[in-house]
């Protein structure tokens, strides 16, 4: 679960990581007033979770009231879906660094990554100049050792005063990363000021969704979802992705649903939504179908091959959901796995054709979608 | 012979008294797995079927050792199956490691990331195999299993000489049915699981299959995200794995930055895409199936070329 920059910076303050004094604004007017109060030059930063804010013009350095007004009005255009902006004084600096902590699944430890070339995306740097990235393993039991933070600081070519400031930030950021069950903690750029202080100009934190039970206080705000259906699916615990095509995927099993998604595209179809109601959700056919129907798909494609997710229960659920919801589009079913014999009978009794081959089911769904679009059947 | 689990496996089960745990423990026994004891704190003295329940792993092992002194050499159990909720999984794994158990399978879906990292680190330190989480487990069809597999579906779980390793449960049924349809069967099927930090990785499973005289070829069911498929490709390129490998990688059309399906299935920063993985595997000499349905014919092709 990604945090907004302003939320991450609130955590930074809690952990003693210096950040610029910012003001949060919820409208263009508020933003202009905040810019006046902050003084110029200042930075206006949209608080959205998507990457690429800078390129989209959603982060601006402004030198006057007029420029601030233009930037704020640009960001608060309805189609930008920006609800808050953060206004901070521009920080003059002598160095611009990169620092992050991420898991290393191979060794079961953490990576500390740092670079003297902050402000560039780390992926770009990794591709174009990997030698400029300094990397250390942090033991997952012991945590970061002071010498590790120190040695990275000197590897970055920092002066002793700067190195001390950097090392303090590194140790604090790791503490935050570990305490809050983060899967990513990143500062890019981390400024070093003329008087040797380290200041986090940006802040990226993502909290592990599996650890939210022991991390009270973190939750996804309704406005952070791209669509209402995605929000409802999340509330239900049903994995869901929104697309804008014809075929609603209502499948069980993460791997199988992903493979079905690939097949639909391969065979020339388009996906309305990715919905996976396997695992703990296999009794939720009704909710799953309700969510699918909201997309007004041309066809709903059900493909399963479950173990714990029993085929008979899912078939029953789907038949029940069809009776209650009366979807106007056809339903293609390919339900296999534990209890499949019983499932087959349930589907036949309900007038549904129980397909057993995934590719055949996908092709059938695409044919339905084409027919509904007024096209010829292939 | 098969790998990891067979008729010589002597397992203890943690969490066998729960609904899911007792159901699948019953099936583990029905398939032929020896389950010596089960552990649920607070329920010592109870039984799951005929299996005695103990408060702790150490208590179970010492009870087994004293009942059966002389019958078994070494540890009274050589494997642990965990039907334990994700938030208690780290504790359960460390309890088993402390008691000297070096093969642990956990099916928990939703282990916190930082717990999974410590589990992985401890497994490496102790030289133990921790398989999972977010997996169905491990099965050697016709012999034994640690986990949850509908082994009675014979068009998937037929014994044979093909090793299968996978990050997905549902897709495994799909792909393995193609293996069986092509006339083969399975030596051992290992679910490494769909989490970003699995306890055991593809390349480590491949090393076991390489040593197994009853495995002729391996089918790998991968997906987008992480680096496990690339590690398998490196192992093939370095000749440390020399048997034929047929790979299927899900998520070729997944949009970048979105988590599709499993927690571990996400393309980050331009790396981990299914296409990159398929290219790495093909370059290393693996046979890559674009679609699950091609796995069977690729196996036929490569094994007949080798004279099997």
List the helices and strands and how they pair.
The complex is a heterodimer of chains A (378) and B (308).
Chain A: H1 5-14, E1 23-25, H2 28-38, E2 42-46, E3 59-62, H3 65-75, E4 85-89, E5 95-104, E6 109-115, H4 122-128, E7 133-138, H5 146-155, H6 160-179, E8 182-192, E9 198-200, E10 204-207, H7 228-236, E11 240-242, E12 247-251, H8 254-266, E13 271-276, H9 285-293, E14 299-306, H10 311-325, E15 331-337, H11 340-349, H12 358-372
Parallel strand pairs in A: 12-13, 12-14, 14-15
Antiparallel strand pairs in A: 1-4, 2-3, 2-4, 5-6, 5-8, 6-7, 8-9, 8-10, 11-13
Chain B: E1 10-14, H1 19-31, E2 34-39, E3 47-48, E4 51-54, H2 57-67, E5 79-82, H3 86-98, E6 103-106, H4 113-126, E7 129-132, E8 137-140, E9 144-147, E10 159-166, H5 170-181, E11 186-191, H6 202-211, E12 217-223, H7 228-237, E13 245-250, H8 274-284, E14 287-289, H9 295-305
Parallel strand pairs in B: 1-2, 1-5, 2-4, 5-6, 6-7, 10-11, 10-12, 12-13, 13-14
Antiparallel strand pairs in B: 3-4, 8-9, 8-11
Helix pairs in contact in B: 3-4, 7-8
Q: Write the CATH fold name of the largest domain in chain B.
A: Rossmann fold
**How many structural domains of chain A?**
3
Biggest interface pair, counts? A-B, 58 and 63 residues
Number of helices of chain B: 9
The largest beta-sheet of chain B arranges its strands as 3-4-2-1-5-6-7
The H/E string of chain B reads EHEEEHEHEHEEEEHEHEHEHEH
Principal-axes geometry of chain B comes out as globular
CATH level 1 class label of the largest domain in chain A = Alpha Beta
Radius of gyration of chain B: 19 Å
Number of strands of chain A: 15
What is the CATH topology of the largest domain in chain A?
A: Rossmann fold
Point out poorly predicted stretches of chain B.
Answer: none
What is the share of helical residues of chain A?
25-40%
Biggest sheet of chain B, open or closed, and with what strands and sense?
Answer: 7 strands, mixed
Number of domains of chain B: 2
